[in-house]
Design goal:
This protein has 18 helices and 20 strands. With 592 residues, the chain is α/β, with parallel strands linked by helices.
């Protein structure tokens, strides 16, 4: 505070109301193969309906990723999805050759600034063969009227518009300007029925757009057809100007001041473009890892539960070409590089489907061997389940094997909702698996012993009780409090919360006041965790014992938080003791 240079009253404020911030602990994340939607970017999804609308209904190539994501969304409502851009993938285009535009950002940064494409007009919004189903039709006033009253191939779609395109109000109000007929109608049609299941369904229609680049709608927004399509369409992108070479078509994309012809949108016939050349591409380990790499930086996206789906290892069971090692490589990448690297999330994995059906070696032995010898990832940031569930695919009217890691991650999210992250997601109270007809492998007690020793959490179907997650171990292979899911998640929450709260101490003086402020900031949070049964006891040390003169001179600040984490019950011993009549219980209690 500056000292006053003349008499007066000065007022200053010192804010000591800082509190520990709330953090999100139920944000799921997955990357993988989808048949539609933006690639190499992260999209937030809230429910399965939105998942299907954004990334397309599942097929044999995308079913494992789709239903892992859908399984998670049956427990929670916040999932970050990254579609992998596969090798050789292309967007369908109107010139049949295809082009790769992964997402809207790629289009805005690399395509749109270039202006009209000299060799093409339209492209599907996203890579994939699904775009080959699209047809784009453009009418001006004359050819729309002809179509409505005619029998051409585009006539059946012209009736979707209520009036003929004419001159936009913006052009009409221009003083001294004689141009006219700048409006066009655009219809986007599902020609083959890939999107809707019904051929020739109109997906989108745009009424009364303008071909003049600076034309405005009555509400002040742009009515230029390229701007509107770019901002609103879920199916197509503009690459050029649809034209048949008519005199007026030379004015497309010009400003009002640049136009010289009276008839601005003078197409002789409706312009119809069928898109083709869209390619799904081939899935490789590199494609999948690149998509997961979008989650590497915690500064870019907040996640807490990272699922790995099937990742292609059991692709032969899903109808894809198998690629040896994809699951193991991707799972290790998710656990070691992403989860352990970020330290604020956990990665969930499932064994290959083939191991759950290995009756020669024995399913439990085969799965345990995969966990210890193949996966070989001994980290408290990794969680492995025992296999796959059989569930109904309503989109294709078939049944599919779906990895359980989406459900286990979902149970963690559900536990956050009904309890707290430091509670175990397993057991009859919180561990019920949804949408399971049967399990690929239903482990017995002996099987569960084998799995648990390898750090694999059994999922078991109990008669009359449903399908239950019956373990809460991490993949850490040594005795430690961190070999349990609830303890690892407890420390993730504490580390995130307290580290964010500690940022308020940056650039303050390392003195008793700042240290006391830090202790007073952290203690209420730990007291809350204790009251919610997350820890048995705690102690915060931030004084001269750990902030020595050497520490202070190095411009450092040390706060030490000691906690005794609560442990979940994994083993119950019930002793039933029969005693003789007349024996006092006080004589025998404690002897057995």
């Amino acid at each position: 505070m500056a000292f006053p240079v003349s008499p007066g009253v000065s007022v200053s404020e010192i804010d000591l109301t800082a509190t520990t911030p709330a953090i999100s602990t139920s944000v799921g994340a997955i990357a993988g193969v989808f048949k539609w939607g933006p690639a190499n970017t992260i999209v937030q999804i809230s429910n399965e309906t939105q998942l299907a609308a954004r990334f397309g209904n599942p097929d044999v190539n995308s079913a494992a990723t789709f239903f892992t994501a859908a399984s998670f969304l049956s427990y929670a409502n916040n999932l970050q999805v990254a579609r992998a851009s596969l090798a050789g993938a292309k967007n369908a285009t109107s010139n049949t050759t295809g082009v790769l535009i992964n997402n809207h950002e790629d289009y805005i940064n690399q395509v749109y600034p270039l202006g009209p494409n000299p060799y093409d007009t339209w492209a599907a919004s996203f890579p994939g063969s699904l775009g080959n189903s699209l047809q784009v039709i453009v009418w001006n006033g004359a050819n729309w009227y002809a179509d409505v009253h005619g029998t051409s191939a585009t006539s059946q779609f012209a009736g979707a518009f209520p009036y003929a395109p004419g001159t936009s109000p913006y052009i009409t109000q221009k003083t001294g300007f004689t141009g006219s007929n700048d409006e066009i109608h655009i219809a986007v049609v599902d020609r083959l029925g890939y999107f809707t299941g019904v051929a020739n369904t109109v997906l989108e229609r745009y009424t009364g757009l303008s071909v003049v680049s600076d034309c405005l709608a009555p509400d002040g927004s742009s009515s230029y057809f390229k701007n509107v399509i770019t901002q609103q369409s879920q199916y197509i992108l503009t690459l050029g100007n649809p034209t048949d070479g008519s005199t007026g078509s030379a004015n497309w994309g010009k400003t009002v001041s640049q136009i010289t012809n009276t008839a601005i949108a003078a197409e002789a016939t409706a312009n119809s473009a069928v898109l083709s050349g869209g390619v799904d591409g081939v899935c490789t380990t590199g494609n999948i890892e690149a998509a997961y790499g979008l989650f590497l930086n915690p500064q870019n996206t907040a996640i807490s539960l990272l699922m790995t789906g099937d990742c292609g290892f059991s692709a032969n069971a899903q109808g894809m070409t198998p690629s040896a090692g994809i699951t193991q490589a991707v799972q290790n990448y998710a656990i070691q590089t992403i989860a352990a690297g970020r330290t604020d999330c956990m990665a969930f994995v499932s064994p290959p489907l083939a191991n759950t059906q290995d009756v020669v070696t024995g399913q439990a032995t085969s799965i345990a061997s995969y966990a210890t010898n193949v996966l070989n990832t001994y980290s408290s940031y990794g969680v492995m389940d025992s296999g796959y569930k059989y569930m109904y695919d309503k989109y294709n009217d078939v049944y599919r094997w779906v990895p359980l890691n989406g459900d286990v991650a979902g149970l963690c999210a559900y536990t956050d909702q009904v309890r707290a992250p430091w509670w175990s997601p397993a057991g009859l109270t919180r561990g019920t698996i949804k949408n399971s007809i049967k399990l690929a492998f239903n482990p017995t007690k002996a099987d569960r012993d084998t799995l648990y020793q390898a750090g694999v959490n059994p999922v078991v179907s109990f008669p009359g009780q449903g399908t239950i997650l019956f373990g809460d171990k991490t993949l850490l292979n040594r005795p430690s409090a961190f070999d349990r899911i609830n303890v690892r998640r407890l420390f993730i929450v504490m580390e995130q919360t307290i580290s964010k709260a500690a940022q308020s101490s940056l650039f303050e003086f390392n003195d008793s006041f700042t240290r006391a402020q830090f202790v007073n900031l952290v203690t209420p949070f730990l007291r809350t965790v204790q009251s919610q049964r997350g820890i048995y006891a705690y102690k915060v040390v931030c004084d001269t014992t750990n902030n020595t003169p050497q520490v202070i001179d190095a411009n450092q600040f040390v706060g030490s938080i000691y906690v005794q984490p609560a442990r979940s019950v994994n083993f119950i011993q019930l002793n039933f003791i029969a005693v003789q009549t007349g024996v006092s219980f006080t004589e025998v209690v404690g002897q057995f």
